[in-house]
Specification:
By secondary structure, the protein is of the alpha/beta class. Helix content is about 35%, strand content about 10%. The protein contains 16 helices and 15 strands. Helix 5 packs parallel to helix 6, helix 5 runs antiparallel to helix 12 and helix 6 packs parallel to helix 7.
Length: about 500
């Protein structure tokens, strides 16, 4: 049992192992791995657990059966029970096929009911435990204070710090009721940047008073409510530390978070393979020097351990520092006593009804200047589906947006992709003139590695050229387009891209 193991019972390399969290696929077989360059294969994963005695494993992707079998095997191999974590900000179904995919945090924030946030967290926690995940890397407590942010987007509960605090703490309370550990991210705040930290190092140009008044309010609330861990942000904050990114900053992690705020839980890095930090020398060593406890996706495990041992021998790190983190890790593991629910609990229908309610309540009609709504089914309407690529998953096969019978006989649908040229855009502009109404459905994602929150150029050119007084813009992913395209008569935001939101939009357009 974890509670019976003391940090001093572990030798130094075993202790260092407890601070490492490599990434693996949640699918069972090596050939199923979707990102093999980041995910350990079966042999290396077993070696990491049995020989390196890593403290945890980060799962990406999976299915109900595969993930359940994999987590059971990993825990059976581990001498010390593992922290098995996943990014489940939008429900267990965000990564685990067959589990419940919930609306985005922003949709929950738009509804504004902490009770909904709590139940979303509780459902996520129950389903995660049922497949063997005991640590959820959520909620995201970044305040959405920059519309150009290319990576946070709908992951934030909103623009109001107090709303983010209320929704985030409620979601975390729900997670804990489901028996999992929680994570507040990304400290000291990732909301006000215009650069994707997966691609390069952003700079957060905010003053200390701004941070105190806005960005830090949700984190302080989460700490007061007992959040289990806090994840660092890979960004530079000159007002706090002009030299080091937050993940490597002793000023931010130790002096502010530990000493000024008195935080006693786990401090965990964001993935150390991200381009914002992966080129720094010995990133794992620097993160530990700054005050981090757990190193997420630290790259080559053997080299990481060797660098940490070398740093200790050179006096750059102390053994006491390592064992202090190990003690926090073991304490966190000892709190995982709630029995896991049966996997058959996935047959509960609470998830679908919760998703449906939030998806409907989150719809916001920003304006309808020319009175284009509702759309009569017999009115000739051109539908444009704006995606980065037709096969990128933005529009699932089950979506009603692909079924003309859902609209009526007078609808015609075209796709508009990032690869389309100017001639195709002009063709669509010409077609728009043949219809009484144009319905533009924007499904382009805001996600890691895309690098921007903006629409692609063909979509921008199309929206700039069409007759705005006959155009309805329905956006599922980018809630600020109404400000950019002021000439458009009608704008409606769903704050969530799912089949349920697609259906909710169609129903809203008809009434």
């Amino acid at each position: 049992m974890v509670g019976e193991i003391r940090p001093t019972q572990l030798n130094l390399t075993e202790a260092i192992g407890q601070l490492l969290v490599p990434r693996a696929s949640g699918l069972l077989l090596d050939r199923q791995r979707r990102y093999p360059h980041w995910e350990l294969d079966r042999e290396n994963l077993q070696e990491a657990v049995t020989t390196r005695q890593v403290g945890g494993v980060l799962l990406f992707g999976g299915s109900l059966g595969d993930t359940f079998l994999k987590t059971q095997e990993l825990q059976r191999l581990a001498r010390i029970p593992l922290l098995i974590c996943a990014d489940l900000e939008a429900g267990c179904g965000q990564h685990i096929e067959g589990a419940t995919r919930l609306p985005t945090a922003r949709a929950i924030g738009v509804v504004g009911d902490p009770d909904f946030a709590y139940h979303c967290g509780a459902l996520t926690g129950r389903e995660a435990r049922a497949v063997g995940i005991n640590w959820v890397l959520a909620p995201c407590l970044d305040v959405a204070n920059n519309p150009s942010n290319p990576v946070i987007g709908l992951r934030s509960f909103g623009e109001d710090p107090e709303l983010v605090a209320a929704m985030g703490t409620a979601f975390a309370a729900g997670l804990r009721s489901g028996g999992v550990l929680t994570t507040a991210k990304h400290f000291p705040g990732h909301g006000d940047v215009a650069v994707d930290s997966h691609l390069q190092l952003p700079t957060l140009e905010r003053t200390r008073p701004q941070l105190e008044r806005e960005d830090w309010l949700p984190f302080r609330a989460a700490i007061q409510a007992g959040v289990d861990s806090i994840m660092t942000a890979h960004l530079r904050v000159p007002a706090l530390d002009p030299e080091w990114p937050a993940t490597f900053s002793r000023r931010i992690l130790t002096e502010i978070l530990r000493e000024e705020w008195g935080y006693e839980g786990l401090i965990v890095t964001d993935a150390l393979n991200m381009k914002a930090v992966d080129a720094w020398p010995a990133p794992g060593v620097r993160a530990l020097q700054a005050g981090a406890d757990l190193l997420m996706m630290p790259g080559d495990l053997a080299r990481t351990v060797d660098l940490i041992v070398a740093a200790i021998r050179r006096g750059l790190l102390s053994e006491e520092r390592i064992y202090a983190s190990v003690e926090r890790v073991l304490k966190a593991k000892a709190r995982l006593t709630t029995p896991a629910p049966a996997i058959l609990s996935f047959e509960e229908r609470t998830g679908s009804s919760l998703e449906r309610t939030i998806s409907e309540d989150a719809l916001i009609l920003e304006r309808d200047r020319a009175g284009l709504l509702p759309i009569p089914c017999l009115k000739p309407t051109l539908q444009i589906l704006v995606v980065d690529a037709c096969l990128d998953g933005s529009v699932p096969d089950q979506s009603p947006l692909l079924k003309l019978r859902e609209f009526g006989p007078q609808y015609r649908t075209y796709w508009l992709e990032a690869s389309h040229d100017a001639d195709y855009v002009q063709f669509l502009v010409g077609r728009a003139g043949d219809f009484e109404r144009v319905l533009v459905q924007v499904l382009t994602p805001v996600r890691a590695y895309r690098g921007t929150s903006a629409l692609h150029e063909p979509a921008t050119r199309f929206l700039e050229q069409i007759d705005g007084e006959r155009t309805i813009l329905a956006s599922y992913t980018q809630p600020y387009l109404g400000r950019t395209f002021c000439h458009l008569s009608t704008v409606i935001n769903a704050y969530n891209n799912s089949v349920t939101s697609h259906q909710a939009i169609l129903e809203r357009l008809e009434r």
